[in-house]
Amino acid sequence: TVWDGGDYKRVTYYTPVLGGFRAGISYADSSASENADTTTGGNEVVSAGLEYNGDFDGFSLGLSAVGEHQGEGEWFSLGTNLGFGNFTVGASYGQKDKEFGFTEDGTPNGDDTTGFDIGVAYAMDAAKVSLSYAHGESTDGTVGNDVDTVDLGLAYALGAGVDWKTSIFWFNSDSNTAANENDGYGAVTGIKLSF
User: Fold this and answer.
1) CB of 158 within 8 A of CB of 127?
2) Residue 95 exposure: Cα atoms within 13 Å on the Cβ side
3) Longest dimension (CA), the chain
4) CA end-to-end span of the chain, whole Å?
């Protein structure tokens, strides 16, 4: 549920962690900057976030709020994770204005979008299994799209710095435009190396 504006050059500052809280803010110049990797539609971009992570007697809690302003629009997202025993339950919700964001050629993206996800994970020794569901809706005032996904994931630590990760997923896209209708299944797997 996060729709960041792009990978153009930014100046970013993170505060130290104080009592489990940490904040961050970043700024990107307009696309007129010679240092921009992608266009910002001629607008400055300001991003901010706040997180909290705490461990208590028998459970852990993570909270986050992030957002970004660009041009006449913005997006925001709220999320939480609750851990107890070997289980972690998480959820997030996000919303984006159609005035936010630009494509590579500088034209507006033009969609009002909302989305949420919820999931649960179970860790056992070197393995972690997760199941999540996500739903998103977008409209430009004429064309409306709904997307639902379900993902079953597995992560397994093969050794120090070596993780095997895989997921099997299903998705369904409904729309009032036949060309945007789609559904299917898929699988992804790979090895992640950390140094």
Assistant:
1) no
2) 2
3) 52
4) 29
Residue 34, pLDDT score: 53
> Which residues make beta-bridge pairs with 51?
22, 64
pLDDT in tens, the chain (195 residues): 566 656 667 889 999 999 999 999 998 877 555 554 555 566 788 899 999 999 998 899 999 999 998 877 888 999 999 999 999 999 999 998 877 766 555 666 667 889 999 999 999 989 999 999 999 998 877 778 899 999 999 999 998 889 999 999 999 998 887 777 889 999 999 999 988
Spatial contact of 94 and 68, defined as CB atoms under 8 Å apart: no
| Of 77, 137, 73, 135, residue with least CA distance to 110 | 73
Instruction: Tell the residue number behind the tokens 């919820």, with chain if given.
Output: 118
How many other C-beta atoms lie within 10 A of the C-beta of residue 161?
A: 10
Question: Could you tell me whether strands 45-56 and 59-70 are parallel, antiparallel, or unpaired per DSSP bridges?
Answer: antiparallel
pTM of the model: 0.80
Residue length of the chain: 195
What is the C-alpha separation between 3 and 125, in angstroms, rounded? 34
Alpha helices per DSSP H over 152-195: none
